[in-house]
Amino acid sequence: MEHTIDATEKKLGRVASEAAILLMGKNSPAFEKNKVADVKVKITNVSKLNVENKKLDNKEYQTYSGYPGGRKVKKMKQVIEKKGYAEVLKLAIYGMLPANKLRSKVLKNLMITE
Q: Which chain positions lie within coiled-coil regions (predicted)?
């Protein structure tokens, strides 16, 4: 089954939570949490998302290499300039999926177009 979400003038979190629910297959009566749902989710017009300036300046994404001093922090504005709105939406959906072995497999069913 294939779902299409139009992100024009929608909030980032609302689009991400809708996509996460669809990717997990929670809207299907045949939902099984130990199986990857046979669902493709396509999100269009991501560059037209409604993101407030306050969030662009304050939201931080951090990575840690495991070494002392290896913590790197980037603001949302920097991530959008470097990789685009698609990366921000992908990270939001990634955080809403359950942290188990299926997370990366479920994310392969996500297509984002700007």
A: none
